[in-house]
Amino acid sequence: MDAPGGMIDVALRLEVQDLYAAYSACLDHGALEEWPDFFTEDCVYRLVPRENFDRGLPLATLAFESRGMLKDRVYGATQTLFHQPYYQRHLVSGIRVTGIEGGAVRAEANYLVVRTRKNELSEVFNCGRYVDRIVRDAGRLRFAEKLCVFDSELIPNSIIYPV
Amino acid sequence: MNAPDREPASDLWPDPLVSRVPYRVYTDPGLYREELERFFYRGHWCYVGLEAEVPNPGDFKRTMIGERSVILVRAEDGSLAVVENHCAHRGARFCQREFGTAKRFVCPYHQWNYDLKGNLVGVPFRQGFVVEGRKVGGMPPDFDMKAHGLTRLRVQSHNGVVFASFDHGVPDLRDYLGPEVMPWYERVFDGRRLVVLGYSRQRIPGNWKLMQENIKDPYHPGLLHTWFVTFGLWRADQRSQMVLDAHGRHAAMISRRNQGGEGEATRGVASFRQNMKLHDERVLDVVPEPWWNGPTVTMLTLFPSVIVQQQVNSVSTRHIVPRGPGVFDFHWTHFGFADDTPEMTRRRLRQANLFGPAGYVSADDGEVIEMQQQGFVQDPAARTLSELGGRDVGPTDHMVTETLIRGLYRYWRGVMEV
Ligand SMILES: [Fe+2]
C-alpha cells in the first residue's frame, strides 16, 4: 500500500470507499453474521461516547478485541438480547484517507445511523465518526481497528446491533 | 396535600395491598410532580457523584437532582459544596459545562459572580456608574449581597460517594442509609480511592421507579438475561440474600455465582442456552477480589436516585434522572480502585460489555421497562402483581421473591399518603 510520490493512490482510495459502502450495506441489510468478516482476527472494535474519548477515559459502550468477540456480539444481539427489533440505515460521508503507515491505511469518516422501529417514525439514533486502521488481509481490505466515537452520548434506550 | 389535578387517594389505591400497584402510579403527571417534591427535593438524600470526579479545589461537575440542575464543586478549602444551577439575578442556568475547574461561577448574562460555595461576591454596577460627573443607577442602598447567593444544598459524603439534599433538615446520611444496608455499601466503598473509568448515558422511555424496581427484582435476571442463567452469574439455584432497610426504601440483592450449565434453575427457562460457548472468553474472565468476602454480586438500590452495582469485576454507580412521568435518563459511572493492577482495570473494562446501554445483561432491562410503560399507558385502571414469595415485606435468604418491590411500595404509599 505504498503511496507513490506522496500522493495516495486513487485506486486505493476507491477501494477504501468500497469497503465503507460494503460495511454499511452489511449492517443495514441485517446481514449481521457477515459483520465479523470485515475485521481481522485480532481486530479492535470500540464504540465510545465522545465525552469519554475527549477526556481520555477508557470506558467504551462496546469494546471488542478479537473477531471472536464480534461473533459473540452477533450471537448476543440476535439470540440472547431481548429487544424491540429495528432497522438501521448508515449514512457515511467524508471518507478520508488520513495516512499510510506500515502497510496500513488510516481512514476517518462521519457516520449517521437512523433507527426505524415497526410502526414508528424514523429517528436519528447515533451519529459520530469512524477512526479506522485498515489492512489488506487474505485478499481484501479489513478493519484492524475501528473506533466509533459518537456525539449522541444520550443513547435512545439501547444499542443492540453494531454501528 | 393532594395536588388539585389528582384523584382522591382512596380512589387511586383503595386496598391495603402493596403487591398490586395501579398503573396510574407510573403515568399520572400530578403524582409525578408530587414525587419530585417528596422524594427528590424533601426528606431524602440524592446522589450527586464521586469525590474522585472533583479531586482538586475548583473542580466541578454539573449533575441533576430530580429535574433540578445542580453543581457539585470542591471549594478552595477542600470541602464539598453543592449549589443549584440558576442565577439569583434573572434565573439563567449559568453553568453549561459538564465538568471543569473554576475559581468563580459567573453568569454570562450580567456577570453576577459567586464563589465556589455559592456566595454572591460580584454584581457589576452595583454602586452605579458615573456619567458626565453624575453618579447614576446602581442597586438600592439596602441591597444585601449575603441574601442573594445561589441555593445551597446540604452535602454529605461517605467513603467517596457524595449525596446532597435541598432539605437541610434531612437526617444524617448514615442514619438515612441505615444499618441494614450500610455493611453492603461499605463493602464496595470502604474508603479506598476510586478511579473513574468513564460514563454511559441512556434515555429510557419509562417511569423512573421502574429502574429502582428492576434492581429490587431478583426474579427476572435468571429469566430475561441469557448470559446470567447460562454462565451462572445470577439464577435461582444460587446462595442469595435480600436485604432492606427499616423503611423498605433501600435494598441490597446479594448472591454468589455458580458454575452455570443445566440444572433445576434452567428447566423450562427459555433464555437458557445449553450449547452457548463464547468464541472469546475474556469478556467473562472473572477474578475474585479479596474485598468480595464471598458474594460475587451485590446490587444496591439507594432510594430514590442511585443504584450501586458490583457484578463480578465490574463496578458502577447508576444515577436515575427523572424527566417526566414516562421517561428518565440513566447515567452510568464505571469506576475501579486506585490500587488496581493494569490487568484488573482491563478486566473491569472488558466486563463492562455486559452492562450499560448496549450491555449483554442490561440493554434488555431498558427495553422491557419501555414495554412496561407502553402497557401502563394503554390501561391506567389496571394493576401490576408482585406476589412472588408472598404479599408481605421482609428480608429473605433466597431470590425467589418480589419482597423488595413490595417494600418500596409500602414506603412509597406512606410518603405519598395514598
Ligand atoms: Fe436485569
Summary, kept brief:
By secondary structure, chain A is of the alpha+beta class. Chain A contains 3 helices and 7 strands; from the N terminus they run αβαβαβββββ.
Shape of chain A: globular
Main sheet specs of chain A: 6 strands, mixed
Main interface pair?
A-B, 36 and 42 residues
Count of separate DSSP helical elements of chain A: 3
Widest sheet, order of strands of chain A: 2-1-6-5-4-3
The termini of chain B sit apart by 11 Å
The SSE order of chain A reads: HEHEHEEEEE
Set down the secondary structure blueprint:
The complex is a heterodimer of chains A (163) and B (418).
Chain A: H1 10-28, E1 39-49, H2 50-54, E2 62-64, H3 67-80, E3 86-101, E4 104-117, E5 123-137, E6 140-150, E7 154-156
Parallel strand pairs in A: 1-6
Antiparallel strand pairs in A: 1-2, 3-4, 4-5, 5-6
Chain B: H1 9-12, H2 29-40, E1 46-50, E2 59-65, E3 68-74, E4 80-84, E5 99-101, E6 105-106, E7 113-114, E8 120-122, E9 129-131, E10 134-136, E11 154-158, E12 161-165, H3 173-177, H4 182-188, E13 194-204, H5 209-214, H6 221-224, H7 226-230, E14 240-244, E15 251-255, E16 297-302, E17 306-311, E18 314-322, E19 328-337, H8 342-351, H9 363-378, H10 403-416
Antiparallel strand pairs in B: 1-12, 2-3, 2-5, 3-4, 6-7, 7-8, 9-10, 11-12, 13-19, 14-15, 15-16, 16-17, 17-18, 18-19
Fe (ii) ion (FE2) is lined by residues 214, 220-221, 224-225, 365 of chain B.
